[in-house]
Amino acid sequence: MQERAKGWHRSGLSVCLVPTMGALHDGHLSLIAKARSVVGPDGVVIVSIYVNPTQFGPHEDFNAYPRTLDSDCERCREAGTDVVFAPVDAEMYPDGRAGSFSCFVVEKKLSQSMEGASRPTHFEGVTTVVAKLFHICLPDSSVFGAKDFQQVAVIRRMVQDLNFPLEIVVAPTHRESDGLAMSSRNQYLGSKERVEAPTLFRILSACRHKVQESLKPVPMPELRQICDSYITQNPLVRLDYLECFHPDSLIPQDCAKPGDRLAIAAYLGSTRLIDNCEL
Questions:
Q1: Could you tell me if 44 and 15 are in contact, meaning their C-beta atoms sit under 8 angstroms apart?
Q2: Which of 28, 59, 174, 246 does the annotation list as catalytic?
Q3: pLDDT value at residue 96
Q4: CA 123, CA 110: separation in Å to the nearest integer?
Q5: Residue 101: band (very low, low, confident or very high) from pLDDT cuts 50, 70, 90
Q6: 84 in a domain, yes or no?
């Protein structure tokens, strides 16, 4: 992969990477389309497909995470991807075991709240594998989705602080017709859970409306009351967190105002979903 990437650079071609864990859906295809718009018709679009063990906690869904490489490759081909990079564990970690790996990339500020608080080892695994993918694929740019807003912020900080020579491009969240943010984990949802899953987006929308209509910043307890009212009507939804934060520093805000970001995480049964919006 590195040798091919060096060859493209010697030929003057622009290279864009779309990192994924597979189980591709239309949201991923929108990232591929964004990558193509970045590099143009003559550039190179790489999609990496790798279910990274180091970003899963000990009781999370690593073993159950959907792996659909053949159909993923076909979707990539139809979307105009030039190369699929799909390494196995033995290529990414010594002996194929993440436990024997001893060098990690650790971001110490932006990764502490929200997802970092709920999943303490998650971002260490994310930054490490993304750094490896950047070194292996040598992209000029890389596309990520806004649904994982904190992840994007952490990766941007890594790129900035460690002088990676590439641009991070953020594509809008892709949604189902009822507002549910597209995610590979949506396929875990049972029929009743799927009906209630758009509650996350409805909570964000209602809170955004409240903030936009208010003449002054809205205290977070008021937004949590809005959240509670929706969850009371949708008993399958179990809230993990609702957090308002500054979009650059990710510092939590006691009062929400236009320009801030609001993020939510919740369980539907055993399935954990996340979403966010600009207020």
A1: yes
A2: 28
A3: 64
A4: 10
A5: confident
A6: yes
Q: How far is CA 62 from the centre of its chain?
A: 16
Query: Structure tokens of 106?
Result: 């650790």
pLDDT in tens, 73-84: 999 999 999 999
Number of structural domains found in the chain: 2
Q: Is residue 115 part of a domain?
A: yes
Phi, psi angle pair for 236, to nearest 5°: -80, -15
Angle at 184 between CA 83 and CA 243, to 5 degrees: 115
Contact of 276 with 262, CB cutoff 8 Å: yes
Query: Is the entire prediction scored with pTM above 0.85?
Result: yes
Q: What is the pLDDT of residues 125-158, one digit of tens each?
A: 999 999 999 999 999 999 999 999 999 999 999 9
Q: Are residues 29 and 162 in the same domain?
A: yes
- Bridge partners, residue 83, by sequence: 46
Q: 20-54: per-residue pLDDT in tens?
A: 999 999 999 999 999 999 999 999 999 999 999 99
- By three-state DSSP, how is residue 119 classified? coil
Do 220 and 153 lie in a common domain? no
Residue 107 included in any domain: yes
CATH label of the domain that carries residue 28: 3.40.50.620
Name the 3-class secondary structure at 9. helix
Q: Residues 6 or more apart from 136 whose CB is under 8 A from it?
A: 1, 2, 5, 85, 87
Pull the structure tokens for residue 34.
């964004």
Rounded mean pLDDT, 164-190: 97
The yes-or-no answer on residue 9 being catalytic is no
The structure tokens listed for 211 are 């903030």
